[in-house]
């Protein structure tokens, strides 16, 4: 579990005068599910963007299996096996589900027929097989999150990063997606990085949790250690977040 697959080393991101990430070090270890939590504005999405290549850090490096990929673009990183979902789901609304997923497989070099097979298989895995021919615009919010997962998986990621996939789901949809993520992780062997406000979901899924605040790592440890840490509870969680 201790092999480092990906890391951010001494990363700083400045937006004008604001330090969104400050001297940040983060490791993603082989086979782990890593939860990233923290208050609004803590820097979670910025960190995801830095790891995925959507934002170039002001200083610092991003390494993938020891290789410096700081200057690689997001599309290049996707081909290297770094895949992400977005906080705001953005499927091609007028396209069918199967074509939405196949497009992601095509982007990593699958041939057309194989991409369609991959898409059908992934829709089955996320429980949307019966809607494969429906348009994405016909889906409910929870179903769109599942579609988003299938699209992120279509690139056969080494590192899968999920940005608030539980947001806006009702409790039974949350239970379903937690179970789905658990089974997808077990089947894929990928590393999974989750940004999530719903701490109960992080607690049940993550092997390790990193708490960010004001662009810095406040705590890093097992869910029990981190969520039991008085400074985390007092300073950052308080009553602001749902814990059940
Ligand atoms: N493109 C940008 N330009 C200027 N400031 C930005 C930009 N993106 C993020 N910020 C600022 O950087 C800080 C970190 O934002 P970020 O979105 O990474 O936090 P977060 O932890 O993901 O928050 P949330 O939980 O609300 O999504 C915030 O103060 C935010 O306003």
TrEMBL record:
PROSITE patterns reported in the protein's UniProt record: ABC_TRANSPORTER_2
The keyword ATP-binding is annotated on this UniProt entry: yes
Coiled-coil region(s): none
Residue span, ABC transporter domain: 6-239
A Pfam entry, by short name: BCA_ABC_TP_C
SUPFAM superfamilies referenced in this protein's UniProt entry, alphabetically: P-loop containing nucleoside triphosphate hydrolases
Record's GO cellular component terms: plasma membrane
SMART domains assigned to the protein according to its UniProt record, in alphabetical order: AAA
PANTHER family xrefs: CONSERVED COMPONENT OF ABC TRANSPORTER FOR NATURAL AMINO ACIDS-RELATED, HIGH-AFFINITY BRANCHED-CHAIN AMINO ACID TRANSPORT ATP-BINDING PROTEIN
Protein name, entry field: Branched-chain amino acid transport system ATP-binding protein
Naturally occurring in which organism (per UniProt): Nocardioides soli
